[in-house]
From TrEMBL:
Biological role: Endothelial cell receptor that plays a critical role in regulating several physiological processes including hemostasis, coagulation, fibrinolysis, inflammation, and angiogenesis. Acts as a cofactor for thrombin activation of protein C/PROC on the surface of vascular endothelial cells leading to initiation of the activated protein C anticoagulant pathway. Also accelerates the activation of the plasma carboxypeptidase B2/CPB2, which catalyzes removal of C-terminal basic amino acids from its substrates including kinins or anaphylatoxins leading to fibrinolysis inhibition.
Species this chain originates from: Pyxicephalus adspersus
Designated name of the protein: Thrombomodulin
Species classification: Eukaryota, Metazoa, Chordata, Craniata, Vertebrata
A GO MF term: transmembrane signaling receptor activity
Domain C-type lectin: 31-147
Length: 565
């Protein structure tokens, strides 16, 4: 058992040695927004200088009485006379001290040689070589060889935020310490961030730490207040004792934060991403979301609701989800229109109505246009069909075996015909378009049927059309007989065209003239024949009156048998 206790004591001693070493070899005091420390380690000047710089500081520059007071607090209580380094140096070996100057030819490690305070040891003696300066227990300065190992060194360090000493209602012993500066000496007016304060009688340990605004405050690692007699227990408002326990109180309409010491308004700052509603129960608020949002699992963040997914029938046509809302749209060819007579302050309903593309300047039907629900369709005049390559254009179409050719008005020998027709001449020598019988060239395996401007192939039962070939339909799942047509020209819906007298060809005009002349010739011939017949009848009557024999009349003689009848 004794062996175990010895081992445990050694382990505890080893674990506490680094911190104890810092506390036993270093002390600090903070005055006027700066901190000063003394380290009781034997070092040469250059080594002491680099050690202070490693702590983000420098060897002490004593330019006023404040730094002199700091030296007195840190060094004067030494049991024997000591010598510690300060930040004065003259590193040149071929120079000597100048007794007429305030700093005797030395310069501060900061790079300047200005000062409002000196305390050279008397009597002064001129010295030569590379020299630095040490300070004695009584605060006097002395030139010292830089290679001398002084008893310690003084550092000065800058801190942006400092805590005030703890205020107590009764006299209590407090031990201040810092992990890198050592033990805090009494007499200091402030303490840097990272300082620990241990109150032995209350068994409380506090530490100085920065808040969000950068101003350090005394805190406890344990949530809730500490003893109310020390800094009001750390309470932001008031600290009260109930049943021997310290409790922080808060003003009305505020509540304690999780640290148990700070009072906040439940919605200031707003812990919610959108709406914060104060309530009496813990944690003092409840989060709510605006329309179109819902609370996430953390009950604080609002996330967008996909209205289109939640209610697929919310729009008649298309629904587009937006942040916090949605937008209804229309199918192509329709537009969203609001009733112009509606004056509802909450908004007027809209509906999708058809767009009349035929009224749009961007719709360019060559002949005529028909508006459809959600679109439009181009129509062609009689004798034309919609061009399959451009639905806005029309091309000529023959729905018979023969039709008139389209000839150049300036050159009747330049004529064109629709696909599937060739330019030909009729008996009158007029240019016409004659249908080509594609079936004469046997273009397909099956039965070929000539069509106006095209042809159609029909495959026998058990075969299907594949281009111009007929293949067995086994396993195809298609009907027994399948046909395919090449270059079909189906007659689309047309609207009658207005006649154009300027579109008549010269050959047609010639035919009309010949027809009129022929009719006139026939009429003249008929008139001449009638006049000639009338003249012959009058001539025969004159002949009978002049010839007596002509007046003899013949009488019919009947037989006996005829009489009986």
């Amino acid at each position: 058992m004794l062996t175990f206790c010895i081992i445990w004591a050694l382990i505890a001693l080893c674990q506490s040695a680094p911190m104890d070493e810092v506390f036993s070899t270093s002390e600090f005091v903070c005055l006027d927004q700066a901190c000063y420390s003394v380290s009781w380690e034997k070092k040469k000047f250059e080594k002491a200088k680099t050690t202070c710089e490693a702590r983000n500081g420098q060897l002490l520059t004593v330019t006023n009485t404040v730094q002199a007071d700091a030296i007195s607090l840190l060094v004067s209580k030494a049991e024997t006379d000591v010598r510690v380094w300060i930040g004065l140096e003259q590193p040149f070996k071929n120079r000597c001290t100048n007794m007429l100057e305030s700093l005797r030819g030395f310069s501060w490690v900061s790079g300047d040689n200005k000062t409002d305070y000196t305390n050279w040891r008397k009597p002064g003696v001129r010295k030569c070589g590379a020299l630095c300066v040490t300070v004695h227990k009584d605060g006097t300065w002395e030139e010292t060889l830089c290679d001398f190992k002084a008893d310690g060194y003084l550092c000065e360090l800058e801190y942006t935020g400092l805590c005030s000493p703890l205020t107590l209602k009764s006299v209590v012993n407090i031990t201040y310490s810092h992990k890198s500066l050592g033990l805090g000496r009494s007499g200091g007016s402030i303490f840097p961030s990272g300082t620990n304060a241990y109150i032995a009688s209350l068994k409380d340990s506090l530490f100085c730490a920065s808040e969000g605004d950068g101003q350090p405050q005394w805190k406890s690692e344990v949530p809730g207040p500490w003893d109310c007699s020390i800094e009001k227990g750390g309470c932001e408002n008031d600290c009260v004792m109930e049943d021997g326990m310290s409790i922080c109180t808060c003003p009305p309409e505020t509540h304690l934060k999780d640290d148990g010491r700070t009072c906040v308004k439940p919605c200031d700052p707003n812990p919610c991403s959108q709406l914060c509603i104060p309530i009496s129960e813990s944690p003092g608020f409840v989060c709510m979301c605006q329309e179109g949002y819902e609370l996430a699992d953390d009950q604080k963040t609002c996330i967008d609701i996909d209205d289109c997914a939640v209610n697929p029938n919310i729009c008649d046509h298309h629904c587009t989800n937006t942040i916090g809302s949605f937008v209804c749209g229309c199918k192509p060819g329709l537009e969203l229109v609001t009733n112009p007579d509606c004056d509802d302050p909450d908004g007027c309903p809209s509906e999708c109505v058809d767009i009349n593309e035929c009224d749009s300047p961007f719709t360019q039907c060559e002949h005529d246009c028909e508006n459809l629900e959600g679109g439009y369709r181009c129509f062609c005049f009689e004798g034309f069909v919609v061009d399959e390559n451009n639905p806005n254009k029309c091309k000529r179409f023959c729905n018979t075996s023969f039709c008139q050719a389209e000839c150049d008005i300036n050159d009747i020998n330049k004529c064109e015909c629709p696909d599937g027709y060739i330019v030909d001449q009729n008996d009158e020598g007029m240019a016409i378009c004659t249908d080509v019988d594609e079936c004469e060239s046997n273009p397909c395996d099956g039965i070929c049927t000539n069509l106006f401007g095209s042809y159609e192939c029909t495959c026998p039962e058990g075969f299907i059309a594949n281009g111009s070939e007929c293949k067995s339909e086994e396993g195809s799942g298609l009907p027994e007989t399948t046909t395919t047509a090449k270059r079909p020209f189906e007659t689309p819906p047309t609207k009658p065209s207005q006649p154009d007298i300027h579109s008549l060809q010269p050959a047609m005009l010639l035919g009309i003239c010949i027809g009129v002349i022929s009719i006139l010739t026939v009429l003249i011939a008929i008139l001449c024949h009638m006049l000639r017949k009338h003249y012959m009848e009058e001539h025969a009557l004159d002949y009978k009156t002049k010839n007596n024999e002509k007046n003899v009349r013949l009488q019919q003689v009947k037989t006996d048998s005829q009489r009986k009848l």
